[in-house]
Amino acid sequence: MEQRIALVTGGTGGIGTEICRQLHDDGYRVVAGYYSGGDHRKAEEWQAQQKADGYDIELAFGNIREWDSSEACINSIRERFGTVDVLVNNGGITRDTTLRKMSPEHWHDVIATNLTSVFYMTRLVINDMLEKRWGRIINISSINGEKGQFGQANYSAAKAGMYGFTKAVAQEVASRGITVNTVSPGYIATSMIMDVPEEIREEIRKTIPVGRFGEPSDIARVVSFLADEKAGFITGANISANGGQYMH
């Protein structure tokens, strides 16, 4: 079988890196999408580190909050490697503040980067998947999209919006061998969490029934499962990976 191509947006971040590595181990040709404010050197250093660790991962530049840049990114991948078989919509940002202090820019930045980007990237790969009659789309949402979070009206709205998008698109493409699902991580031990003062971090940890923060690999394994050839009967679903912190 021809090697399948997997694109992970936000691929050079903490969770993104582990997803890229897992999919590489699963036999995909992996492309890490990045923007990083146009800091190509940072992405290239990341790629060199992955190479040193035994992971041959490609890079694709694109600002996923802009249609033209997203289109250029997908066209570049298509020209260099072929069409995308597995799309992991993982790119995102936070702009946290209470609603009464939230500016229109705070709102639009997060909605564009975390939700509109999912439409852009999915729209740009879906026709190739339909033609192949196979594809996997995996949208990385959040526990805070499920339950909401103080100071994150923008982020919670964007992540919750992924669920409706996922379920609608899943119905449209199910008959053509394409699945669309979401994964909702809880608190994962990336630099964002580990930079929180220890006493606050410990209070958060106490709210997690399994007694620990998640690891990026915990999320990567769920993505691996959903991307698998044999996972074709699971679509329109959300898998919560939060250590039992939010059950519903």
Topology:
Elements: E1 5-8, H1 14-25, E2 29-34, H2 40-52, E3 58-61, H3 67-80, E4 86-89, H4 104-132, E5 135-140, H5 143-147, H6 153-173, E6 178-185, H7 191-194, H8 198-206, H9 216-227, E7 238-241
Helix pairs in contact: 1-9, 3-4, 4-6
Would you kindly provide a written description of the structure presented here, covering whatever features stand out?
- The protein has 9 helices and 7 strands; from the N terminus they run E-H-E-H-E-H-E-H-E-H-H-E-H-H-H-E.
- With 248 residues, it is an alpha/beta fold.
- It has one domain: NAD(P)-binding Rossmann-like Domain (Rossmann fold, 3-Layer(aba) Sandwich).
- Strand 4, helix 4 and strand 5 (135-140) form a beta-alpha-beta unit.
- The termini are far apart.
- The mean pLDDT is 96.
Q: What's the architecture in CATH terms? A: 3-Layer(aba) Sandwich
How far from one another are the termini?
A: 40 Å
SS elements, strand count: 7
In total, the number of domains comes to 1
**Largest sheet composition:** 7 strands, parallel
Strand content: 5-15%
Fill in the CATH topology.
Rossmann fold
Radius of gyration: 17 Å
Order of strands in the sheet with most strands: 3-2-1-4-5-6-7
Shape: globular
What's the CATH superfamily, by name? NAD(P)-binding Rossmann-like Domain
Going by helix content, strand content and strand pairing, the class is alpha/beta
The total of helices stands at 9
Low-confidence stretches: none
Helicity, in percent? Answer: 40-55%
- N-to-C series of helices and strands: EHEHEHEHEHHEHHHE
Average pLDDT figure: 96
